[in-house]
Amino acid sequence: SQTIHQWPATLVQPVGSPLSLECTVEGTSNPNLYWYRQAAGRGLQLLFYSVGIGQISSEVPQNLSASRPQDRQFILSSKKLLLSDSGFYLCAWSPGTGNYGYTFGSGTRLTVV
Amino acid sequence: AQKVTQAQTEISVVEKEDVTLDCVYETRDTTYYLFWYKQPPSGELVFLIRRNSFDEQNEISGRYSWNFQKSTSSFNFTITASQVVDSAVYFCALSMDTGRRALTFGSGTRLQVQP
Questions:
Q1: Where would you tag: which of A18, A43, A65, A87 has the fewest CB atoms within 10 A of its CB?
Q2: Does B108 touch chain A (CB under 8 A)?
Q3: B50 in contact with chain A, both atoms CB, cutoff 8 A
Q4: pLDDT truncated to tens, each residue of chain B (115 aa)?
Q5: Chain B: nearest CA to A26, how far in angstroms?
Q6: 3-class DSSP string for B18-68
Q7: Subunit contact A94:B45, Cβ cutoff 8 A
Q8: Touching check for A103 and chain B: CB below 8 Å?
Q9: Is A113 buried (19+), middle (13-18) or exposed (0-12) by CB count in 10 A?
């Protein structure tokens, strides 16, 4: 069966520090991968999605970047965090073909101080 | 462009009451998929249902039921005999069949079920 791992679960980082959040999927090949952010009390905003290794689409201009160095690995990064980067970050995957739903990781709660 | 509207920001009910969460969507595509997710306080998103645009049959799963009406672009979710464990934020979402398949979420409805 397929599983998705996301870490860390919680992170407190100072303003100006770098960020690296990692997400890996097991049990499937060539998945579509997504990063979403949820600000406190708000809905989910798509940040990035990827349909293959090295293929990244950015949805909104921001202080973040994403990379997909391997088929089932998706990384969210920042060189210098801003206060406004605080939020709940969720990684998700869906099959590369068809539309059979999306499975989400357990999320990372990021607080920038 | 796609859009999902959940007009109810927060709903509070007493246990055993029935409650309906509204979802209205906008899309120009003829083939699309609709979803409901539950987000408990832990934050993880729990999948509840997926519906494609060609299947307008209503669905029932235990105390949960969904009413899909293309004529009004709505996909409403009803919980019958609500329980305290139903307290969560519920998201309705939409995705396309081709191209960018990422989910577009509504803003969510926070449901509080009081004992």
A1: A18
A2: yes
A3: yes
A4: 789 999 999 999 999 999 999 999 999 988 899 999 999 988 889 999 999 899 888 888 999 999 999 999 999 999 999 999 999 999 999 988 766 678 899 999 999 999 9
A5: 18
A6: CEEECCEEECCCCCEEEEEEEECCCCCCEEEEEEECCCCCCEEECCEEEEE
A7: no
A8: yes
A9: exposed
